[in-house]
């Protein structure tokens, strides 16, 4: 096997490196900067160059990290490694590993619809494909992005007519940038929690086409964000940070909002099934486009998805990993004492 599944992560014995390890290792190839895929403690990191500064934000400026362009080939002990667009978040990549004539691809996390900022997912032909299955059930089929953002815009306008602030919760790395990119002109100003503001400003400094936003501090007068859009991380729900916005309507952006009961459980006024992961159709599209002869399924509905693939002529097997879909926050303080 070109890649092996170990207690530290996905390992390439010939190249002596790990992909997205969950324990410290000598050499780690990283698909993207979410905390379940990029963890502290490894001696050296390799990632797509737009992930470099996001890794440094999360793990510290002193880490040893090498950034490479999409498609650029790096060789470890004769094993070829290249990174290819995953379309999940800014800097996200799939890892292509070739040993001799055998090619394996680890997808990391991905989505096939181009969100306008994270890049277009690129199918990579391979013998073996390792795919996430976060939303690997047929009930998860996303509406086109344009429809979802049209619904969000209408919701914000309805809140304004009712004299309410519009508060949307979304992951600080990935979802927040996508929301801000597409909703830049929905209100006169956009305000944000510190956990959103910090990576946003970093990405603007690096040249990303993101709108100006304003950070909410204890000194921010309530009149400043009245009838405007406010974006915060999921962890801000049911905190004192939220209560300052009364009267407000709460919207949650997550693929889990596809299931009606989840909106009620989040105490949300509106749920928008906007996900940075592929839906059922996208997963099938990606798998088939690789032409893989064998598929390994990880995190999410991996057992169900593997069974479906096998029953439809694509040998597949579930693999247990420590990746997940609930830990996509930057490992930086989401609230400071002054933001409670």
Automatic annotation (TrEMBL):
Disordered: annotated span: 321-340
InterPro entries recorded: MBL, RibonucZ/Hydroxyglut_hydro, Xnuc_lig_assoc
Coiled coil regions in record: none
MF GO annotations: RNA endonuclease activity
Protein name as annotated: mRNA 3-end processing factor
Species whose genome carries this gene: Chitinophaga pinensis (strain ATCC 43595 / DSM 2588 / LMG 13176 / NBRC 15968 / NCIMB 11800 / UQM 2034)
């Amino acid at each position: 096997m070109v890649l092996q599944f170990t207690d530290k992560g996905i390992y390439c014995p010939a190249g002596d490196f790990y992909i997205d390890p969950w324990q410290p290792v000598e050499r780690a190839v990283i698909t993207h900067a979410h905390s379940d895929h990029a963890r502290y403690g490894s001696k050296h990191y390799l990632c797509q160059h737009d992930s470099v500064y996001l890794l440094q934000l999360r793990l510290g400026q002193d880490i040893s990290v090498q950034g490479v362009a999409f498609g650029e080939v790096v060789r470890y002990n004769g094993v070829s490694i290249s990174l290819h667009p995953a379309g999940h978040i800014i800097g996200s990549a799939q890892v292509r590993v070739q040993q001799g004539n055998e090619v394996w691809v680890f997808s990391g996390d991905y989505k096939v619809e181009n969100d306008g900022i994270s890049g277009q997912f690129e199918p990579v032909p391979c013998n073996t494909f390792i795919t996430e299955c976060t939303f690997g059930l047929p009930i998860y089929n996303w509406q086109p992005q344009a429809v979802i953002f049209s619904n969000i815009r209408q919701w914000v306008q309805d809140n304004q007519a009712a004299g309410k602030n519009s508060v949307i919760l979304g992951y600080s790395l990935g979802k927040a940038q996508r929301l801000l990119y597409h909703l830049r002109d929905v209100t006169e100003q956009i305000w944000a929690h510190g956990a959103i503001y910090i990576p946003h400003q970093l990405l603007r400094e690096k040249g990303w086409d993101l709108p100006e936003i304003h950070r909410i501090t204890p000194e921010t007068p309530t009149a400043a964000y009245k009838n405007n859009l406010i974006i915060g991380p999921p962890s801000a729900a049911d905190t004192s940070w939220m209560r300052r916005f009364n009267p407000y309507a709460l919207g949650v952006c997550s693929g889990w909002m596809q299931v009606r009961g989840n909106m009620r459980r989040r105490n949300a006024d509106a749920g928008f099934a906007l996900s940075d992961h592929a839906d059922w159709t996208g997963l099938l599209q990606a798998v088939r486009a690789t032409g893989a002869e064998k598929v390994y399924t990880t995190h999410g509905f991996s057992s169900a998805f593997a069974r479906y693939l096998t029953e439809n002529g694509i040998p597949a097997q579930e693999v247990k990993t420590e990746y997940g879909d609930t830990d996509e926050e930057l490992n930086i303080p989401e609230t400071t004492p002054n933001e409670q």
